[in-house]
């Protein structure tokens, strides 16, 4: 309990310091974790961090649940197919770039390349939205950027689910046929989605019996965490299952906004603890061993986002400002990337440590430069309100 309290306080102070320095809060959480963790002060040692797995699993389950809210079919229909085309194109091109440099250029294993490629797709909307609100920006670029960053993480979780399943198959000692390598991931993903659908349907039927916000919050938290546990027991994707709960609630409940608002009210302390723990697990010594690979990852992800967004926008005949600048608003990474890195680390300990170091280093880098890139994009697009505050 002492260490949990220490991590929360350290993360809170780190977040406050980050905001004073005009940096994203998540960067402060990560740096606070590094400070109190084994890499620096070693107040929170490796054995303590090993007991924090339940925190990560709970946080990831709730992150996936809230991301599922983006799959409201009525809302997606109003956005139109162009947004979907742009989002999928930039995500897949980013995956392809990062996978290629890992597998072909650095001769990394198939599992490592698949997982890092999938994680690279993730985008953190908070930093971009913060810049848009600060400058009261509006226009074609902003109206395209907001829905793309909103649904990008959902696409990323699907890509990661497929990659994780393929990775497990690739490291098996058995000689497997191509059909088995395709069929096994298909079963795992389908079963995960079915589990989430059943859990979400149970909640939509029973939620009318919860008379207060407190009862509703307890029910949704219990259901999401229990579903995550069932998925883990049966070697299914807890992320996909929990995301499917969110998608089911988003489409079947009339008061879905209240449900997700309640979940979001509960989550901040848990997310703070999760990111601080993630920072504490960072192995600074490994940074010196991943130099060229780490730099190549940053370059490949940046090119994938910028060129992928441009290609997707051009294919939908979007305005030139969107083609030129949309990708610059998709660079920040945070919660989902860290969460997926944590899952990869747990599933593949032999490669997870190096992969997690690259992911966390990338998060810090992109969270620092991301807001400046977003500001540059909306300024060059001419969508900044001239009466807004300066950066």
Question: Any chance you could write out the topology, listing elements then pairs?
Answer:
Blueprint: H1 2-20, H2 25-36, H3 46-50, H4 53-68, H5 73-79, H6 81-105, H7 110-120, H8 125-134, H9 140-170, H10 178-206, H11 213-233, H12 238-252, H13 256-280, H14 291-315, H15 320-325, H16 335-347, H17 349-380
How many helix segments? 17
How many DSSP-defined strands? 0
- Fraction of helical residues: over 70%
**Element pattern in H and E:** HHHHHHHHHHHHHHHHH
Low-confidence stretches: none
Tell me what you see in this structure.
The protein has one domain: Na+/H+ antiporter like fold. 77% of the residues lie in helices and 0% in strands. It is built from 17 helices and no strands. The two termini are 40 Å apart.
In short:
The protein has 391 residues and is an all-alpha fold. It has helices at 2-20, 25-36, 46-50, 53-68, 73-79, 81-105, 110-120, 125-134, 140-170, 178-206, 213-233, 238-252, 256-280, 291-315, 320-325, 335-347, 349-380.
Label this structure with key terms.
17 helices; globular; mainly alpha; Na+/H+ antiporter like fold; 391 residues
């Amino acid at each position: 309990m002492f260490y949990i309290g220490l991590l929360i306080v350290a993360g809170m102070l780190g977040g406050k310091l980050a905001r004073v320095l005009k940096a994203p809060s998540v960067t402060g959480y990560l740096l606070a974790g590094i400070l109190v963790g084994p890499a620096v002060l070693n107040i929170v040692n490796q054995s303590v961090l090993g007991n924090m797995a339940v925190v990560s699993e709970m946080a990831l389950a709730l992150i996936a649940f809230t991301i599922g809210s983006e799959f409201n079919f009525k809302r997606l229909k109003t956005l139109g197919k162009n947004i979907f085309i742009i989002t999928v194109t930039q995500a897949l091109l980013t995956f392809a770039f990062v996978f290629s440099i890992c597998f072909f250029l650095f001769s990394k294993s198939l599992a490592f390349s698949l997982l890092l490629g999938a994680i690279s797709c993730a985008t953190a909307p908070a930093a971009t939205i913060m810049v848009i609100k600060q400058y009261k920006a509006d226009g074609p670029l902003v109206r395209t950027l907001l829905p793309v960053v909103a649904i990008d993480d959902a696409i990323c979780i699907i890509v990661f689910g497929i990659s994780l399943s393929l990775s497990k198959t690739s490291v098996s000692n058995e000689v497997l046929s191509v059909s088995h390598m395709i069929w096994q991931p298909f079963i795992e993903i389908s079963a995960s989605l079915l589990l989430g659908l059943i859990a979400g349907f149970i909640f939509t039927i029973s939620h009318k019996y919860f008379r207060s916000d407190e009862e509703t919050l307890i029910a949704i938290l219990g259901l999401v965490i229990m579903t995550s546990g069932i998925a883990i027991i049966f070697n299914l994707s807890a992320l996909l299952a929990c995301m499917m709960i969110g998608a089911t609630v988003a489409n079947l409940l009339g008061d879905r906004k209240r449900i997700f608002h309640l979940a979001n009210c509960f989550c901040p302390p848990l997310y703070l603890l999760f990111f601080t723990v993630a920072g504490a697990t960072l192995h600074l010594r490994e940074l010196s061993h991943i130099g060229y690979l780490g730099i190549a990852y940053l370059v490949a992800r940046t090119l994938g986002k910028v060129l992928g967004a441009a290609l997707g926008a051009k294919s939908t005949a979007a305005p030139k400002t969107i083609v030129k600048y949309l990708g610059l608003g998709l660079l920040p990474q945070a919660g989902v990337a860290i969460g997926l890195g944590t899952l990869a680390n747990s599933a593949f300990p032999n490669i997870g440590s190096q992969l997690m170091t690259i992911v966390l280093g990338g998060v810090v880098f992109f969270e620092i430069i991301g807001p400046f890139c977003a500001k540059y994009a909306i300024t060059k697009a001419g969508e900044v309100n001239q009466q807004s505050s300066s950066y």
